Predict the structure.
Amino acid sequence: MLLNKWMKRHTLTLYAPMEGDIIPLEKVTDPVFSEKMMGDGIAIVPTDGTVVAPVDGTIIQVAPTKHAIGLRSEDGAEILIHVGLDTVELAGSPFDVHVSVGDTVKAGQSLLTADLAQIQQAGKDTVTPMVVTNGSELKEPYSFHTGGPALPGKTVVAQAEQ
């Protein structure tokens, strides 16, 4: 892509939604995520149940069972954060949601709190995928970074140049 001196490129950044270890999406045991059926992304093996916004944006979905939140970034990326695997079966009990559909959020702002111990006691995996569900519609795809520890709202997990 050619740029003239008046065109400015900027980097779009997604931050970790939780504290824990960042792993490739391919290592998630649920094929819906590992085979990227919902989109590309990363997963966090959480050490803390606080889920924060990975980017400035708008809440576009809160699952009735509170286990998943969708948001749209200012650049149009639609991001799904799915706390745990098969946690829909827990009917919302280990989750406390702090936002509603239509809310505007800033990167690092608390979205929900999950009781990780309760999720594990129920026999569910706490691994938390975060995927960009409309990546093919974006001008530039995100490049995802995995490995190492994540600090919520601070550790960069994906970038795209615009």
